[in-house]
Amino acid sequence: FDARSVSDWEAIPAALLIGDKVRTLAPSLSAHPHRLDMGAAWRELTGLPFVFACWMCLADRAHSEAVAVAALTLDRQRRRNALRLDAVACAEGPGHGWPVDEARSYLTQSLHYDMGQRERQAVETFWSMAVETGVARAPAQRPVWLRLDEMRVSPCLR
Questions:
Q1: For residue 131, what pLDDT is reported?
Q2: Total count of domains within the chain
Q3: Residue 10's domain spans which residues?
Q4: Which of 74, 89, 103, 135 has the most CB atoms around it within 10 Å of its CB?
Q5: Could you tell me if residue 63 is inside a domain?
Q6: What is the 3-state secondary structure (H, E, C) of the chain?
Q7: Are residues 64 and 13 in the same domain?
Q8: Cβ 36 vs Cβ 54: under 8 Å
Q9: pLDDT for 63-109, tens place per residue?
């Protein structure tokens, strides 16, 4: 489903819009009067933040050098991009229908880029609830949460 291609929201019984699409592509209230902010609903239900996305791998590969290299590379890019959020808001916001101030606020206040203890607890709670309701199967192993400062890679790969 690509919300950008919708010409008649009245013909669509329901839609899931995430992130910037909520701001730029949401149908009129008359077309879809019932709305749910998943993050707010989750927070109200659990008291935890809603984790919309995170990088994961299979537990049996968690301590491999390939995963360490990928995790360290992704973290380096996350830290680099954290320094560029204002530039991204200025350069990309208007082209996507966002005033710069609103794009800046979205990138710096609405989105969070770290997986702290509460975010990890939220992921585990989500998974437990999915298993309890039959939406997902119980995992063979509990999640393995890796710490970047404990990852080891060959000096040749750094």
A1: 93
A2: 2
A3: 3-35
A4: 103
A5: yes
A6: CCHHHCCCHHHCCCCCCCCHHHHHHCCCCCCCCCCCCHHHHHHHHHCCCCCCCCCCCCHHHCCCHHHHHHHHHHHHHHHHHHCCHHHHHHHHCHHHCCCHHHHHHHHHHHCCCCCCHHHHHHHHHHHHHHHHCCCCCCCCCCCCCCCHHHCCCCHHHC
A7: no
A8: no
A9: 889 998 999 999 999 999 999 999 999 999 999 889 999 999 999 99
